Recover the amino acids of this structure.
């Protein structure tokens, strides 16, 4: 295809500290909620770290970062999205002073990125609330977490502000509705959590995000701060107006987070949701003022679309859909039941651009699959044509959206190197261009091998998207 991507389009990959760093107990790091979640979101947390929790070792990026970043550079990455582990900087989350060894690690990571000319894209909080904040305060249900998060963010801005331009405040902030422990550090079991507690926690995160956005603009002139939303377009199952309305209401549950970040106040439909749920938020005048600090761009993850219906008899949740939703009968699904919908990405891009008129950044997209390592001519690789096809079709739709007039900053494919799945805590659910020799039982050498998709993505970046669709 003729490339439609901007000259400075930020091609790259995305990761999260808790899924690939490992070194959970090295150099003064405290425990995070992820260190007690050996089965992802599918089971309650354990009391202590257990050997079957693959995230404790991850893929050992903590000790292999230079090797991995060199591989990203070989592919031609323009940007690399990673998160900072809060408990590596503040081991308990509420400490008075930061852990210098933790700060020094990210200095080294940034050194390597600079050496290779790769722009860092940093997520401040990516599903890794310090465990002490969950146990002592029940996570974001407690207003005091706003102050702890501000202190943590200030340290990051002071230390790395001259080196990092692009920041994301919270990963998939809307996921807290469906995964309150993972996204909000809330230990109360989901089925026991009241709507009052849940929405108050959401409010605290939104205020914290807005305050930190203001702080970033004050401390780092020229910095760009984005919110991050889990995008999952919802189509009506039928043309029945009731199904259309049901789909709209589902979409509004996600829109609300972007509306608040981009417009600086709660939208009317969301206030109605709160009223009808009997929720009365504790909102101060200062909170309302803080929320007016809006983001510079909107980033989002996109993996699938779903359908909605008002007919209870047809309303059956699709396999693997964390955020709910029915399967679309016109679409195929991945091995984990995620519906594959490249056109949905173009729809999201147009929808968000029309709604918010803010630059958009696709910071997660990819295909989880059970890759098989093979050897050909003495070289180990993975023939992952299925991943190439998936990513190619999605990126063609990004090009179409750009032609539609959407301002797209960049694209970072999820799990550019194999890492531990957030939803299932498996290694076998692989997303990367780089195969990591580690298995679900914890065995493996941790050696890295380039997959077929490695060279494919290298060509995509080298041609600025010109090789897509061929």
């Amino acid at each position: 295809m003729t490339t439609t991507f901007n000259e400075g389009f930020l091609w790259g990959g995305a990761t999260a500290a808790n899924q690939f760093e490992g070194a959970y107990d090295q150099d003064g790091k405290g425990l995070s909620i992820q260190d007690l979640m050996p089965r992802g979101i599918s089971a309650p947390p354990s009391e202590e770290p257990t050997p079957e929790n693959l995230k404790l070792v991850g893929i050992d990026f903590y000790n292999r970062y230079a090797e991995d970043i060199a591989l990203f550079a070989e592919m031609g990455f323009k940007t690399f999205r990673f998160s900072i582990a809060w408990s590596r900087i503040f081991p308990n989350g509420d400490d008075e002073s930061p852990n210098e060894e933790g700060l020094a690690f990210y200095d080294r990571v940034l050194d390597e990125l600079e050496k290779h000319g790769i722009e860092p894209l940093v997520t401040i909080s990516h599903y890794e609330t310090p465990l002490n904040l969950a146990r002592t305060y029940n996570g974001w249900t407690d207003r005091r977490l706003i102050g702890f998060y501000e202190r943590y963010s200030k340290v990051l801005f002071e230390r790395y502000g001259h080196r990092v331009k692009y920041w994301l405040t919270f990963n998939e902030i809307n996921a807290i509705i469906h995964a309150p422990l993972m996204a909000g550090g809330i230990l109360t079991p989901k089925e026991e959590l009241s709507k009052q507690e849940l929405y108050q926690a959401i409010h605290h995160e939104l205020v914290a995000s807005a305050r930190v956005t203001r702080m970033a603009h004050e401390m780092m002139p020229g910095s760009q701060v984005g919110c991050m939303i889990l995008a999952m377009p919802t189509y009506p199952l039928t043309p029945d107006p009731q199904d259309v309305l049901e789909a709209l209401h589902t979409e509004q549950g996600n829109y609300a987070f972007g509306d608040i970040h981009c417009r600086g106040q709660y939208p009317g439909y969301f206030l109605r949701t709160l009223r009808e749920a009997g929720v009365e938020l504790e909102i101060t005048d200062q909170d309302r003022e803080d929320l007016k600090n809006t983001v510079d761009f909107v980033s989002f993850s996109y993996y699938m679309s779903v359908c909605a219906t008002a007919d209870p008899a047809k309303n059956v949740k699709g396999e693997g859909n964390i955020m709910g939703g029915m399967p679309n009968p016109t679409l195929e699904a991945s091995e984990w039941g995620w519906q594959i919908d490249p056109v949905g990405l173009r729809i999201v891009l147009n929808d968000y651009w029309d709604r918010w008129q803010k630059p958009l950044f696709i910071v997660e997209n990819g295909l989880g699959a059970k890759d098989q390592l093979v050897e050909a001519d003495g070289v180990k690789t993975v023939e992952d044509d299925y991943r190439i096809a998936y990513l190619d079709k999605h990126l063609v739709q990004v090009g179409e959206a750009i032609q539609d007039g959407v301002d797209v900053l960049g694209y970072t494919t999820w799990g550019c190197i194999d890492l531990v799945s957030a939803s299932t805590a498996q290694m076998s659910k692989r997303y990367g261009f780089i195969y990591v020799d580690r298995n679900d039982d914890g065995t493996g050498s941790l050696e890295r091998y380039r997959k077929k998709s490695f060279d494919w993505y290298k060509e995509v970046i080298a041609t600025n998207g010109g090789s897509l669709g061929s």
